[in-house]
Design a protein that fits this description.
107 residues, alpha/beta, 4-stranded parallel β-sheet, 4 strands, Disease resistance protein
Length: 107
Amino acid sequence: MEKVIDDERSEVLEIEVDHLGVFSRLIYLKLAHLPKLRRMHGRALLFPSLRSIVVVSYPSLRKLPFDSNTGMSKKLEKIKGEQEWWDGLEWEDQTIMHNLTPIFSDP
């Protein structure tokens, strides 16, 4: 699996992802042992209820599906993962990294 949501499938899927909030009730996200996972989606996704993310064994995951507003919310409290993985992430905007770094920890 290279992506959680295939953003190349159709325009209908884009409408569902953007407007119906596919992850609107997701509180905890653990991504573990998917060595081919490169990204969750091509664009930022809404996670209005997300409080915690745990990332385990992800040498290929280089982008998180967040924009510069993510992390400003009081809901997202922590991101756990290996420091080497965190240091290798690619950011669309340095504001995203700045917002999320205070809640990141190495397990």
